[in-house]
Amino acid sequence: MTIQNSTRYAIGRDEVKTFTTEQVRKEFLVDDLMQQDVLVLVYTHYERFMLGSAVPVNKALSLDTIDELKAQHFLDRRELGAINIGGKGTVTVDGETFTLEPKEAIYIGAQTKSVVFDSLDKSNPAKFYLNSAPAHHKFPTKKVGLTDANVLELGSKETCNERTIYQLLVNGVIETCQLQMGLTCLKPGSVWNTMPAHQHDRRNEVYFYFELDAAHSVSHFMGEPTQTRNLWVHNEQAVISPPWSIHSGAGTSNYSFIWGMAGENLAYDDMDVYAPTELR
User: Fold this and answer.
1) End-to-end distance of the chain based on CA atoms, in angstroms?
2) 269: domain range?
3) I need a labelling partner for 83 at 20 to 30 A (CA). Which of 17, 181, 243, 260 fits?
4) Tally of domains within the chain
5) Was 198 annotated as part of a binding site?
C-alpha cells in the first residue's frame, strides 16, 4: 500500500510576520489530499495533531503506522476521527465493519490495532478525511451520522454567513480524549465561514474545505488579529491554524468545511473573539 507522509514543524508568530506568500503557503496549506489509492498523512507539531485522507478506489487502504510515531500500530497512543465526503464507504475497525454515508463520521479510540478503509462503489469512491491526536485513554469506537450530531443554525443573510454547523465528534455527542471534529455547510448566498474571527490559544485547529466548485476559491484569513495574512484555498485543501492564529474565511461562492481541533480542553466555545473592527 502507498503511504505519503510529511511533517510540518511549529512556526512562531514573529516568524510569520516576515513570510512571503510562498512561505505562508508552504508551512500552512495542505494541497495534496484526496489522492486515489494513497493514504496521505501530515504530522504537525501543533499539539502533535495529524490530518490526512484515504480514497480507496482499486484497493482497500489500511491505516498502517509510520516511522514518526515510533509505535507498532498507528493508534497505539492515538485517537482518530474520519468523515466521509465521497460515496458510500466502509471502515473496518479490528474486524468490525461500519458503513459511512456521505458526511457521516466515525471515532476510533486508542489501542486499536487495525483500521481499513474501503469503497462500496469504485465508480463513486468514498473520500475519508482524517484527523488524529494523542490519546491517554481508550474510548469506544462509534459511528456518528448527521442525525446524531448536535446541530447549530447560525448567521444571517444580511451578514452573508448563514450556515449549519454539525458537531459530530464533540463532547456531549461522544467521548474523546482531546479530538473534536465537525462540519459546517454554508447556505447559497453566504460566503463567510466564521465571523467574528476567533482564535484558540489553548488548542490548534485545521480547516478542510470541500464542496467548492473548481471555478471558485476561499480566502482563508490567519495570523495575529493585528497581523493578518491570507491564503487562497481551493476544493479539498486544508489550512493548519496554529493556536496563536485567528481563523476565518470568505469564499467566492458558498462551500462546506470540516473543522478539527485538539488541545487543552473539550469546551467547543473556548475561543477568543475579535470583532471585524479589531482586525488589521
Assistant:
1) 46
2) 2-278
3) 243
4) 1
5) yes
Span 217-241, pLDDT tens digits: 999 999 999 999 999 999 999 999 9
pTM over cut 0.85? yes
Can you say whether residue 155 is alpha, beta or left, with left for phi > 0 and alpha for psi between -120 and 50 degrees? Answer: left
| φ, ψ dihedrals at 254, nearest 5° | -75, 165
The answer to whether the beta carbons of residues 237 and 29 sit under 8 Å apart is yes
DSSP labels, 131-192: EEEE-SS----EEE-TTTSEEEEE--TTTT--EEEEEEESBTTB--SS-EEEEEEEPTT--B
The answer to whether 247 is annotated as binding is yes
CATH number at residue 77: 2.60.120.10
Cα dihedral sign, 169-171-176-177? positive
Q: 45 labelled as ligand-binding?
A: no
b/e 37-73 (16+ beta carbons within 10 angstroms → b): ebbbbbbbebbbbbbbbbbbbeeebbbeebeebeeeb
Q: What secondary structure letter does DSSP report for 55?
A: B
Task: Residue count of the chain, please give it.
Answer: 280
